[in-house]
Amino acid sequence: MFEREKFVEHNENALAAGRVYGIDPIEEITQRCIRIVKNIEAELSGCVLCRGYDFSKSGFGPRTIILCDQCEKEYHVGCLKKHKMANLKELPKGQWFCCMDCSRIHSTLQKLLVTGPEKLPDSISDAMKKKHIEKGLDITNGFDVRWRLISGKIASSESRVLLSKAVSIFHECFDPIIDFQSGRDLIPAMVYGRNVRGQEFGGMYCAILMVNSTVVSAGLLRVFGQEIAELPLVATSNSNHGKGYFQLLFSCIEKLLAFLNVRSIVLPAAEEAESIWTDKFGFTKIRPDQLINYRRVCYQMVTFKGTSMLQKRVPECRISQTSPLDW
Prior knowledge:
Blueprint: H1 11-16, H2 25-33, H3 40-43, E1 65-67, E2 74-76, H4 77-82, H5 100-115, E3 118-119, H6 122-134, E4 145-150, H7 157-173, H8 186-192, E5 205-211, E6 214-224, E7 228-230, E8 234-236, H9 245-259, E9 264-270, H10 274-280, E10 284-285, H11 288-296, E11 307-313
Helix pairs in contact: 7-8
GO molecular function: chromatin binding; histone binding; RNA polymerase II transcription regulatory region sequence-specific DNA binding; zinc ion binding
Organism: Cannabis sativa
Protein name: Zinc finger PHD-type domain-containing protein
């Protein structure tokens, strides 16, 4: 990991790699290359094309490493050219995507951020309303159900309030998730898409379900290209448990992933919740060899101590549509 205090001598190398004067080169490189590695042989995935984990420490050349801004896979610049994927003359100054699929996924997710809350079809709302009536729940104030994708990277005053409410729901349902190095609670960092001492959460999105403009359920989502997406944290506020809200939010997330042609969704499950995910949502436990293979392909998935990693194939998108919101 490049750190300001320890690797100041690499400033000239960073500039030689194509960084712009006036911008801190170490900070710029850190945004693309940050990793905490204890055992380089075991933990550094390296270039997905040649499987090599070596990289150039000076200047810009064939062994310079670049990361895709959507799937976060690592590539040697020379390997990209060899495989006719890209012929880079310098590190891109803006975002860079390894393929059209990653570019399309990123573009779709960004459009959803500015679309605002989407009202769910009346058929779904009516089914939820009927369930509430059967349980004797009060719906005198109406029953307007909407879902929305938000991100700390594109945060308006409205979305910042919604992100704050999502943080509150996660804190209501989970103990703080403490980073052992910094001692910071990682839940706000994950929700707002911030990076914390080598923990990269910049690709996180927050999906929320709102009933009558109140956030009742939230889930964190990160899409690693077409292969897999992860759902590291999901929760429903305590006062809204047992009302089917998370099942509804999960169906929205699943339909979005189907529209994006993502194949699988993975998540960490605590032992006491594992049967819910397997029996109710159709997840299965990831085999150890599968998990190792995922990590070798640069999927830096969020895992928590004492949890099992589960996965599920995303159902195929069965209807022709131009937008994931056309449901």
